[in-house]
Design goal:
The chain is 76% helix and 0% strand. The chain is mainly alpha-helical. It has one domain.
Amino acid sequence: MIKFFRKIRQNLWSEGNTTKYLKYAIGEIVLVVIGILIALSINNSNENRKERAQEQELLSQLKSEFESNLEQLDQKIDIRNQMITASLKLLHNIDNPETREADSIIKYLAITGVFPTFDPIVNDINSSGRIQLLQNSSLKEKLARWTSEVIQVTEEEQTWGINRNNNYLPLLTKYGVLRNLLNQYWKDNMAGSFHLDIGTKTELDFGNSKREILNSKLLDDTEFESHIAQCASYAKLTNSQAVSLRKRIAEILYLIEQDLN
């Protein structure tokens, strides 16, 4: 094709027809420019198709991850609600000694001794730059804030975890109820809520202590009363943060669904 155009130019030049030669040369340049623009357009179109395919793949991945995050967060909210209920029951037993029942007290203690933590799937789309594949500016904004919002929940969780490990469990050990509490923990399959595969049942039965456990002494201890009040407070405060985070996940999933459709 290039040889064909060159031959035409040479013939026009040899004929001495400068006007025709210039017109033809300009026309040839225009054709070349048009060809380049068409090639660029095709290339851009192909790149856009690739990016949109990558965006759809990323959206599908995010949908799966945030659905898992929502499921896990709901489980942790439910556990903390149980902690609040158990704490209020124990405070009622503290205030009303005549209503105390040993078996019920151990059940409530087992629930207040847990340490639920939200451990979400954290995508690297911000650090990797893949977030730029997303066209939805609202979705990009919410994803950019995601990590900092998770921190608000996990910080509250860690505060309770430190208090539980350093103060609450040692107090329960001091009063000799920890064996019965842990045995109840396994009997009620509380560990099932913390497995990677939800619903997995891990069985362990080492029986209750043969020693006399004086639950009343524990309940009459003002330090224990303070720990139970803290347990309820931390669980309530963390859940208030978790509910806001749950709303954010729901918003993200809604935007993802819109873009996938």
